[in-house]
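Help wanted!
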Amino acid sequence: MKRTALTLFEIIALLAIAATLALGSNALRRDGLKLSKDYFEKPVPDTRPTTQGSPPSTQGPPPTTQEPSQTAPASQPATNARQADVEEHPFQVVTFAEALDIVNDELYEMDVCIFVDARNDEQFAEGHIPRAWRLDPYHSSLYMDDLEPAARDAERIILYCDGGDCEDAIFAGRELLEWGIELEKISLYEGGMEDWEANGGPIEKGPLE
Amino acid sequence: MSRPESLLARADRSGWPLLLARLALGVMFVWMGVAKILDPVEFLKLMRQYHALPESPAYYMNTVAVVLPWIETVCGATLLLGVAVRGAGIVSAVMLVFFTPMIFMRGLELYDGGGGEFATFCAVNFDCGCGAGAVFVCNKTAENCGLLLAALVAVASRSRRFCLGKLLTRATGPPRPRISVS
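Answered by r_m:
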């Protein structure tokens, strides 16, 4: 009886210590999780803009407005086909060719059109689309001060992550919408970094300065 | 006349089976727990793939993603130190009993839905969210069964040899009565 009570006490004490350390450290961490935030909530797809509603683009060809499930460009390798469990999103979709045109445009350096990388620090440092901004959707507040003014000024924002079944770019798009950025300005490069690298797109390495 | 001690009881009394079990379980739990603590977002994303918890309200999944790695780490640390061994063994065993079938089922799901991507079930390789990156499902299942056995040893053992808890009890316990010889 005494042994059972002692064991029960040990279990309760262990769980209490672990919970205290976990919640305490999470509250103190800069990159801690916000417990009440739904990180996987997606923007509502039925607000998808029509072709007529999209703003004029200053760089590159106009964005495609196909259904995401039909948007795999010819240049995109089969491995980048989005998996069935990746849900729809309301954003316009750009292909590799369109994305490359934007990067090669001489106006690209003026941030009229910006790329936003939704991957983590490590992946970003390993290689990203040149001049891409960062927006890790799980720690969006860390990037808000820098990115929000640039996103407001830009005429077009193209989000990307790994490609394949990666959904982080969609979640980053939701963050931009929450900041009040117009849906019409936001596009998604679904092929992501996998497609960009596979097609030989230029890559910049190192952390964001 | 006392009954002869069984081989298992004698082995247990030596303290070595418990020490081995504590080291195996403790090292694995601390290693994997710390890996998850360092990257809570990655753990949250990997946990989501099991669809074991409701996504709404978000509070459930986020809290589990924050607390679970610390439970693992605290259990691992106490096992390594030899404090609250039975309690830590029970918590570890419960976690392993829950997670091992989940990993196995996820492996089956990937094998069935892989469209021939994996030649055999044991070739299924994925990041199970265990803290060690991508693993082969059969290897992981076998490893977890081994850890479960170690957890059961920690629960059942009556020996407290090589345990810090016993040393502390001795140091802080009531003084032994002195036997005076007159």
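OP: Thanks! One thing I noticed: Chain B touches chain A at residues 37, 40-42, 44, 48, 55-59, 62-63, 65-67, 69-71, 73-75, 78, 84, 86-88, 90-91 (CB under 8 Å).
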